[in-house]
Specification:
With 418 residues, the chain is of the alpha/beta class. The protein has 14 helices and 15 strands. It binds pyridoxal-5'-phosphate. Pyridoxal-5'-phosphate (PLP) binds next to α5. Keywords: Aminotransferase, Pyridoxal phosphate, Transferase, Transit peptide.
């Protein structure tokens, strides 16, 4: 099939909500390491990694070999049977989460992980009220769509009850600044609701994305997380950390965002980079939570499938061998510094923010962001887009991106933003 035939089928046969990134859609023919080739043979530097997922690079040989070896043993058996790599991976993953976490369930995706986490939280607390950030994104199932604060993602149907949206701590833009001396004004409003629930003997459930990815790489400051932790303790909030995008080294310096920012979630949700793009998610929780849901029945036919588990085991080995947490922290810091140095004074750019290998360029308008997205593609660089108004360029490359790759990215932005 040629480009036109492929695009025609996508346009006429796929659901109308399957929308390509570019007016002239990119049709991929090959991907290797940090590069993607289109159907005409044009090579791109991939600074978006399949939406912050292919962290160990495309077609990673070590991961491919591990998956092929598992394929030759067996590909699918389902949760009704047991197999060694899943047992091994469960121990390795729980170990990365730290001592408090002792139980897990493997899903197929981030959405499924968050959906299950909410279900467990409700079952464990007998509470129905869910609090989530106004710029958060948590997935595409019914419940996770509405737990997503960005209402552009909401389906035009009636929302499930008892979901409250808390102002996102985009603290650099805050006019109040009360958090510098006392509790932050956006948390105060939530605390009033928390108190009402406590008075009824109920625990509020809160979902936090430590860095808000789809919302435009919003990075709350450390003092906000400290304040949030105090509030969580005070009101006995049941905390779910959505680490679908921030997990597995993406934020640098720690395996998960909750570890970097000092949060102590009851449940941790994972997906995306967990298996470098093979479908897998995980929900990790504590023994005390497990006790409360021990009578619950839950199943997933494909969840924790052997091929994805084989990939996931290799991902963790690579993260450790390549010292990814430190590399991401250091290279990410230098990239953020360079991007700010060259572009923060640019008239079209409001600010540049980030953590590790997640950097957002916040443009004044969505048109300017779209123009930058398209111009970057013409110059051979693939980046993403986010933010409530689609006005933020997201740079979320594979964690194997080198200083040379970042240098090339900066040079392309120099041309693009001219
Ligand atoms: C923070 C976060 N949570 C959940 C999801 C949903 O993951 P998936 O698309 O794999 O279902 C995403 C996807 O972008 C995400 O960024």
């Amino acid at each position: 099939m040629n480009s036109k035939e492929i695009s025609d089928i996508f346009n006429s046969k796929f659901a109308p909500f399957v929308r390509p990134y570019y007016g002239d859609p990119l049709i991929v023919s090959k991907a290797e390491g940090v590069h993607i080739w289109d159907i005409d043979g044009k090579k791109y530097l991939d600074a978006y990694s399949g939406v912050a997922t292919v962290s160990m690079g495309h077609s990673n040989k070590r991961i491919n070999d591990a998956v092929k070896a598992q394929m030759d043993r067996f590909g699918h058996i389902s949760y009704i049977y047991r197999f060694e790599p899943a047992a091994e991976y469960a121990s390795v993953l729980l170990n990365k989460c730290g001592g408090d976490y002792s139980r897990l369930f493997f899903t197929n995706s981030g959405s499924e992980s968050v959906d299950l986490a909410i279900m467990i939280a409700r079952a464990a607390t007998a509470s129905e009220s869910i609090f989530t950030f106004s710029e958060g994104y948590h997935g595409g199932t019914f419940l996770t769509k509405f737990s997503t604060g960005l209402d552009t993602w909401h389906a035009k149907i009636e929302a499930p009850p008892e979901i409250f949206y808390i102002t996102t701590p985009e603290c650099v833009t805050c006019r109040h600044r009360t958090c510098e001396t006392s509790r932050c004004i956006c948390l105060n409003k939530a605390c009033e609701k928390f108190e009402q629930l406590n008075r009824k003997g109920l625990r509020p459930i809160m979902i936090v994305e430590p860095v808000l990815g789809v919302g435009g790489i919003i990075t709350p400051p450390l003092h906000y997380f400290k304040m949030l932790s105090e509030v969580i303790d005070e009101y006995n909030v049941f905390l779910i950390c959505d680490e679908v995008q921030t997990g597995f080294g993406r934020v640098g310096g720690a395996f998960f965002g909750f570890q970097k920012f000092g949060l102590k979630p009851d449940i941790v949700c994972m997906g995306k980079a967990i298996a470098n793009g093979y479908p897998l998610g995980a929900v990790v929780f504590k023994e005390e939570t497990s006790e409360k849901v021990k009578d619950m029945l839950h199943f997933s036919t494909f969840g924790g499938n052997p091929l994805s588990i084989a990939a996931a085991l290799e991902v963790i080995k690579l993260i450790d061998e390549m010292d990814i947490l430190n590399v991401v922290e250091e290279n990410g810091r230098v990239f953020l510094r360079d991007m700010r140095l060259f572009f923060e004074e640019h008239t079209a750019v409001k600010r540049i923010r980030g953590a590790g290998y997640s950097v957002g360029i916040d443009f004044e308008t969505d048109d300017e962001a779209a123009a930058a997205l398209n111009a970057a593609r013409s110059e051979g660089l693939l980046v993403g887009i986010g933010g409530r108004k689609k006005n933020v360029i997201r740079v979320q490359p594979p964690l194997t991106f080198t200083t040379d790759n970042f240098h090339e990215t900066v040079e392309i932005f120099k041309k693009v933003l001219k």
